[in-house]
Amino acid sequence: MTLDYYALLQVTQRASPADIKAAYHRALLAAHPDKNPSSAVDITVLQDAYRVLSAPALRAQHDLQLKNTKGPIGTGSRPAQIISLTEFQEDPACDAWSHPCRCGAQYTITVAEMDAGCHLVPCASCSEVIWVGYEMAEDADE
Ligand SMILES: [Zn+2]
Questions:
Q1: Which terminus of the chain is less hemmed in, N or C, by CB atoms within 10 Å?
Q2: Major location, coarse class (predicted)?
Q3: Residue-wise pLDDT tens digits, 118-141
Q4: How far apart are the CA of 130 and the centre of ligand 1, in A?
Q5: Neighbours of 10 (CB within 10 A)
Q6: How many angstroms is it from 69 CA to the middle of ligand 1?
Q7: Other beta carbons within 10 Å of 82
């Protein structure tokens, strides 16, 4: 799991370097044991967050990691139809699951793709894309 440093500092992913610096100082102050003895926030985590978000290359890498772990819902140009994996047909021969598309072709998602956290599946033939719903083992503690 990738820790969302933007959420930690309470800024958006579009925040400017100045916004991030201000948010970092705000978060540090809020987490200071003298100001807030009950604060559960680890200051070293805030320092990590600022180190990453204040370095353009590290920030870009962090953005990419967030994109890969959060999934594309709500970020695409149009919402994808959500179909549960339980509606898919399992094909044990090739470790893949498939679902018929309206056009007659198939959506196919492989076990390897699911292991990688991939949810968006394009139709093999037309331009339709669906979002496959399945539980990831690492989300089980929610
Ligand atoms: Zn299709």
A1: C
A2: cytoplasm
A3: 888 989 999 888 989 988 655 445
A4: 10
A5: 11
A6: 26
A7: 11
